[in-house]
Design goal:
Strand content: 5-15%
Protein name: DNA polymerase III subunit delta'
Helix content: 55-70%
Number of strands: 5
Oligomer: single chain
InterPro entries: DNA_pol_HolB (IPR004622), DNA_pol_III_delta_C (IPR015199), DNA_Rep/Repair_Clamp_Loader (IPR050238), P-loop_NTPase (IPR027417)
Radius of gyration: 25 Å
Distance between the termini: 51 Å
Mean pLDDT: 92
Low-confidence stretches: none
Catalytic activity: DNA(n) + a 2'-deoxyribonucleoside 5'-triphosphate = DNA(n+1) + diphosphate
Order of helices and strands: HHEHHEHEHEHEHHHHHHHHH
CATH topology of the largest domain: Rossmann fold
Largest sheet: 5 strands, parallel
GO molecular function, one term: 3'-5' exonuclease activity
CATH class of the largest domain: Alpha Beta
Shape: elongated
Organism: Aureibacillus halotolerans
CATH architecture of the largest domain: 3-Layer(aba) Sandwich
Structural class: alpha/beta
Number of helices: 16
CATH superfamily of the largest domain: P-loop containing nucleotide triphosphate hydrolases
Length: about 325
């Protein structure tokens, strides 16, 4: 269960601003929580809602165990309304239904709270309808709009809301959260470099392809470093079949880039924060055979290959060509 103490660890500015406003009873009627995916915007909104509805809080910290807190967490509180996109957009009928709901008196004789996920997906009609709602807020009504693309919100909506910026969760904080959730340290550290979204990272560490991908990259790099003909076999028998089973095969290239990032760190003598710490000896041997300049050039080659992949080029042909170019160096 999230609390303001938890929020303050990853989003101290947002936590301080909201808790201070509650203590001074100076809440805005509408907020825009803007920031990248995984920045705890929705978690913060839920803690905010619990603070408003909880009758057993300590200061502004909700107790987390009373019926109101439990109903907020489960999404069943009668005065909490969460709006999500219907398909590719948020439609005017959804906003009209929300407006109708808010004409009724609060079920608990207190605040009414609504949260709109991915608010940048409001259609023009829905956004204009919401604007009228924001211009004439009811008493003790709080709106929170969540977005990672604030530039796509109407300026007139932005001007009627208090905007709070959320920063990306730090890699160390994300790694610690993943480990606490049960992910192994090696997987957690690697996943934290591939996404800033805690839930996406946790799913990644639990999926079979993730451990396989890490192992395939290690075996491929060992074969490349040894100028072994096994490298092409690894591409054909391991890399390509794995890529076909992955929702986002470009992540394989991202993991490969992290190997070369580690190689550059070894060249610089900074081995305390490697993404492949269990492969340090192998990285050190490779660094003796390959200059720092050549390693940087290989990074450019991998990035170029990844761009070709995004243009729908043939995966096997691309990776085979990549192997040849890396072994030439």
């Amino acid at each position: 269960m999230m609390s303001w103490k938890d929020v303050s660890k990853t989003q101290p500015k947002a936590s301080q601003l909201l808790t201070s406003s509650m203590r001074r009873s100076r809440l805005s009627h509408a907020y825009v929580f803007q920031g990248p995916q995984g920045a705890k915007k929705e978690d913060t909104a839920m803690v905010f809602a619990m603070s408003l509805f909880c009758h057993h809080k300590t200061g502004v910290e909700p107790c987390g165990s009373c019926p109101d807190c439990k109903r907020v967490r489960s999404g069943n509180h009668p005065d909490l309304h969460v709006l999500s996109p219907d398909g590719a957009s948020i439609k005017i009928d959804q906003i009209r239904a929300l407006q109708k709901e808010f004409t009724y008196t609060s079920m608990e004789a207190g605040y009414k709270f609504y949260m709109i996920r991915q608010a940048h997906l409001l259609t023009v009609q829905a956004a204009n309808s919401l604007l009228k709602f924001l211009e004439e807020p009811g008493q003790q009504t709080i709106a929170v709009l969540l977005t990672d693309r604030p530039s796509r919100l109407l300026d007139t909506i932005i001007s009627r809301c208090q905007c709070i910026s959320f920063q990306p969760v730090s890699m160390d904080a994300l790694t610690a959260e993943l480990v606490e959730a049960g992910a192994g340290a090696l997987k957690a550290h690697l996943a934290s470099a591939l996404t800033q979204d805690v839930q996406a990272a946790l799913r990644m560490t639990e999926e079979e392809w993730f451990a396989t991908a890490r192992n395939v990259v290690i075996q491929l790099e060992k074969a490349i470093a040894d100028h072994s003909g096994e490298a092409l076999a690894i591409v054909q028998e391991d890399w390509v079949p794995l890529a076909k089973d992955m929702e986002n095969p470009s992540l394989l290239f991202d993991i490969l880039l992290l190997w070369y990032r580690d190689l550059l760190m070894v060249h610089s003598g900074q081995t305390n924060r490697l993404f492949f710490p269990d492969q340090q000896e192998c990285l050190e041997r490779q660094s003796l055979r390959q200059s720092k300049a050549k390693t940087a050039a290989h990074v450019a080659v991998i990035l170029e290959t990844k761009r070709h992949l995004e243009a729908n080029a043939n995966m096997q042909l691309l990776v085979e060509q990549l192997v040849f170019r890396l072994q030439e160096g």
